């Protein structure tokens, strides 16, 4: 038998496979899956580590050193030139083995590449397989039937790799129910299926939003437990879908509180996607079709449609940027949509996570900014944040001097305890605007029609912001050196319980940001 040109295919394939490999041992590769935050299923590990190498070596041994037995095995009594055949079979076995390693390591385990690379390598593997089939064609058609089983195993292996890649699990700190909201459990969970527009992000840090607390403590009612919350996420894009154009693998990116909308309706088409009727939250939402509940950023990874994945400007440290993705945006969007800028007097009610970023952004947009807090405890901080003035609602007649002078007030209060809406609204000039972004628990407060009489003010609300606004906000923060005030806390069960209690007591300046993810989920 002539050394056919198809042998060239596997030699090329072999070379490509060796180039793809970076020389790590098999075991190191499997260990790497653990630290990457997901693990290979046991049957596949057994197959990969034990059965496949032994079968390959046995195949190579028989083909190369014990050809009569091999030829008997394959019923190929009349092989014209045994040596090239043996070489070719040994080579093809090796090629397949190396390819399996290369595939597993480069694509499944590390998952640093996108599906296009994955498909290309699979294509090379198929070429190698067909090259093998073509070479043995000199043995007559019967040979195909006899080697069919091996090839079935090879192809099954490819299928399994693909399957393993798509079924990869993430790990996160979940709460099991509102009655045990301070108990966080490190669990594996299944993300939604990887879509063409999806980006897998390895999380580096995550801010702790007031909404996380409302959600796990049951303040907002029933939730889909077990649940990992967190929607102020910064990390690295490690895998992008074949149709992704906005994000590149390796890029530092962020994800906020929204992770889906239809991108097709009237609202989605005019940068109001946050108000789309099909919008889905980053955590606690049920993905249509699969029933999978979305899990947030107290986790190893997050899988998000590219529209809600935002490149982070280099100038912004990760823990500074993370809280901007929910708290910052929630303040920024209503500010820009309601004319915050030079010549405007803007109030920010509540100096918490959203409120302190509200002061920073309103100032950066050029307005005269007043922080409106309950007591004087945060006055000095408010001035450091850049507030031009400070009002404490605990003071007698706190509003009198400023009645009918504000153009816009953003309300971030997360409770209605002792909340005197009429006193706040009296601050607004004629047709001034009151925009509430806080989402207190309970039934809310009564609003009388007479409330609006004095100044004809408008009251409204605002939900997060658009992709465009997110990018503009991050750029503004980078350009003006805006810094979130963060308390960094390493993520673990104990710290999560502690910071939730502290947030509950309003004891944070002014945002917790969970860090040291590598200690829990690997590098
Ligand atoms: N609309 C949206 O898109 C959106 C997005 C994210 C979050 N949220 C909601 O916004 C709210 C605030 O979130 P956050 O993360 O900023 O919370 P946070 O860090 O806990 O801050 C809330 C602040 O509200 C003030 N406050 C609390 N109780 C009050 C009361 N009874 N009367 C007046 N002020 C009160 C406090 O400020 P002082 O100590 O200065 O008084 C507190 O620091 C939460 O309800 C959250 O769920 C809404
Ligand atoms: C949002 O919708 C409103 C009402 O249709 C429209 O006026 C506005 O331009 C839209 N987009 C933004 C970014 O506000
Ligand atoms: C306010 O006015 C609306 C519309 O006229 C009316 O339906 C409602 O009952 C009034 N509410 C109060 C509390 O007076
Ligand atoms: Zn939030
Ligand atoms: Zn829509």
From TrEMBL:
Keyword flag Phosphoprotein: yes
EC number assigned by the record: 1.1.1.2
Keywords: Membrane, Metal-binding, NADP, Oxidoreductase, Phosphoprotein, Transmembrane, Transmembrane helix, Zinc
EC class name: oxidoreductase
Regions that span the bilayer: 42-64
Cofactors that this protein relies on: Zn(2+)
Gene3D superfamilies linked: Medium-chain alcohol dehydrogenases, catalytic domain, NAD(P)-binding Rossmann-like Domain
All copies of domain Enoyl reductase (ER), residue ranges: 177-473
GO biological processes: alcohol metabolic process
Any one GO molecular-function label of the UniProt entry: alcohol dehydrogenase (NADP+) activity
Known catalytic reactions: a primary alcohol + NADP(+) = an aldehyde + NADPH + H(+)
Keyword Phosphoprotein: yes
Family: Belongs to the zinc-containing alcohol dehydrogenase family.
Subunit (UniProt): Homodimer.
Protein name listed in UniProt: alcohol dehydrogenase (NADP(+))
């Amino acid at each position: 038998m002539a050394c056919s040109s198809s042998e060239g295919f596997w030699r090329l394939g072999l070379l490509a496979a060796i180039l793809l490999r970076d020389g790590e041992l098999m075991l190191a590769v499997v260990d790497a899956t653990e630290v990457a935050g997901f693990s290979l299923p046991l049957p596949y590990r057994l197959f990969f580590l034990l059965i496949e190498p032994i079968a390959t070596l046995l195949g190579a041994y028989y083909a190369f050193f014990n050809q009569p037995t091999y030829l008997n095995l394959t019923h190929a009594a009349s092989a014209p030139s045994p040596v090239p055949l043996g070489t070719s079979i040994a080579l093809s076995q090796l090629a397949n083995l190396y390819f399996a390693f290369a595939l597993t390591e480069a694509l499944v385990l590390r998952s640093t590449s996108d599906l296009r690379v994955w498909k290309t390598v699979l294509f090379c593997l198929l070429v190698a397989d067909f090259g093998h089939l073509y070479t043995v064609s000199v043995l007559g058609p019967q040979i195909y039937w006899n080697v069919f089983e091996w090839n079935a195993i090879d192809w099954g292996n490819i299928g399994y790799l693909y399957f393993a890649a798509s079924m990869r699990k993430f790990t996160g700190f979940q709460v099991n129910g509102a009655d045990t909201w301070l108990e966080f459990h490190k669990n594996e969970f299944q993300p939604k299926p990887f879509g063409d527009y999806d980006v897998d992000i390895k999380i580096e840090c995550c801010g702790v939003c007031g909404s996380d607390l409302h959600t796990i403590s049951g303040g907002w009612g029933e939730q889909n437990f077990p649940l990992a919350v967190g929607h102020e996420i910064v990390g690295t894009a490690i895998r992008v879908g074949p149709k992704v154009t906005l994000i590149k693998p390796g890029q530092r990116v962020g994800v906020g509180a929204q992770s889906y909308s239809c991108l097709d309706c009237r609202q989605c088409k005019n940068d109001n996607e946050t108000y789309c009727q099909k919008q889905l939250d980053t955590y606690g939402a049920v993905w249509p079709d699969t029933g999978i509940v979305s899990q947030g950023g107290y986790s190893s990874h997050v899988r998000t449609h590219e529209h809600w994945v935002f490149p982070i400007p280099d100038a912004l440290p990760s823990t500074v940027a993370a809280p901007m993705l929910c708290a910052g945006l929630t303040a920024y969007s209503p500010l820009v949509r309601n004319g915050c800028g030079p010549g405007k007097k803007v109030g920010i009610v509540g100096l918490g996570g959203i409120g302190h970023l509200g002061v920073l952004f309103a100032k950066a947009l050029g307005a005269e900014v007043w922080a409106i807090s309950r007591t004087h405890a945060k006055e000095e901080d408010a001035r450091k944040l850049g507030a031009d003035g400070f009002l404490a609602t605990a003071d007698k007649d706190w509003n009198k001097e400023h009645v009918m002078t504000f153009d816009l007030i953003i309300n971030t209060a997360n409770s209605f305890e002792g909340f005197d809406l009429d006193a706040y609204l009296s601050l607004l000039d004629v047709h001034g605007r009151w925009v509430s972004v806080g989402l207190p628990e309970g039934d809310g407060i009564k609003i009388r029609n007479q409330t609006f009489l004095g100044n004809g003010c408008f009251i409204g609300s605002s939900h997060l912001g658009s992709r465009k606004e997110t990018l503009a906000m991050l750029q503004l923060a980078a350009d003006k050196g805006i810094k979130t005030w963060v308390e960094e806390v390493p993520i673990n069960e104990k710290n999560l319980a502690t910071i939730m209690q502290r947030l509950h007591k309003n004891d944070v300046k002014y945002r917790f940001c969970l860090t040291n993810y590598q200690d829990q989920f690997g590098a």
